[in-house]
Specification:
With 167 residues, the protein is mainly alpha-helical. It is 63% helix and 0% strand.
Length: 167
């Protein structure tokens, strides 16, 4: 009995290590996009990834045919949502990296954009994951895409030192 448990534990560890080797890079990139941190300086994204992988490992034996990547992505998204929208434990108080194009988006817009466009999650699935109506997910994704494609213009510089009166 003890040998069987040891073998199952070893097999579980090997399976999980193989999963992490294949999925951790993509999950870290998704977490970095969510937090809008610089790719080479992303402590919040790394913490988010660590939490998602720990949760996935804890559930590993109960997956029973479920895709572990989906489980990790779901936890990553829900943990980000809880932290970003509710200031969970002060975890997300830091500002996004100013050089990131995603820094102009709200956390909710970043989450939906990453799920829909980077991860390829369908509208219905993203809506179910976030507890939002499908139409709301579509509207937020459209607004975020428009913000990225057409950034707000900065005011025109004054010509010859003259100040332009606001209209």
């Amino acid at each position: 009995m003890r040998q069987r448990q040891a073998f199952q534990g070893t097999r579980r560890a090997r399976e999980f290590e193989a999963f992490v080797a294949g999925a951790a890079g993509r999950l870290l990139h998704a977490a970095t996009l969510l937090t809008a941190e610089a790719p080479d300086d992303n402590p919040r994204a790394r913490r988010l990834l660590t939490l998602a992988l720990a949760h996935t490992y804890a559930c590993w034996d109960r997956l029973r045919g479920e895709d572990p990547y989906d489980r990790a992505r779901q936890y990553l998204a829900s943990r980000f949502a809880r932290g970003a929208w509710h200031q969970y434990g002060g975890f997300w108080r830091a500002r996004p990296h100013p050089g990131s194009p995603l820094a102009r988006l709200t956390p909710q817009e970043r989450l939906i954009l990453v799920l829909r466009l980077y991860e390829g999650v369908g509208e219905e699935q993203a809506a179910a994951l976030l507890g939002l109506p499908t139409e709301r997910v579509r509207a937020i994704c459209d607004r975020a895409t428009t913000t990225l494609v057409h950034p707000p213009r900065s005011p025109a510089p004054a010509v010859g030192g003259a100040k332009v009166a606001p209209s």
